[in-house]
Design brief:
Blueprint lengths: L5 E5 L10 E7 L1 H13 L18 E5 L5 H15 L1
Parallel strand pairs: 1-2
Antiparallel strand pairs: 2-3
């Protein structure tokens, strides 16, 4: 649809079409693997279990284009902070 706005996921997709992909959620693989190995080495990453990892572990990071206002960025950060708390 002409004029549609979307959020990219998993990588920074804002460079594809910044007018359409106005932000992305970056999946930080370095942080994820560091977290997973640390959990494994301390015996906290057990088998046959779903282990949640994401915002609290610093794995999901927002990326914005100039099309996103500071008000929206602040609201997203507040949501992240509230979730972590």
């Amino acid at each position: 649809t002409k004029g549609a706005k979307v959020v990219g996921f998993s990588s920074d997709q804002t460079t594809i079409a910044p007018e359409t992909v106005t932000s992305s959620v970056l999946f930080d693989f370095k942080t994820f693997y560091t977290w997973a190995i640390s959990q494994y080495m301390t015996g906290k990453l057990t088998g046959k279990t779903v282990h949640e990892a994401g915002i609290k572990e610093g794995i999901f990071k927002p990326v914005y284009t100039a099309n996103i206002s500071q008000e929206i960025k602040d609201a997203v950060q507040k949501g992240i902070d509230d979730y972590i708390a």
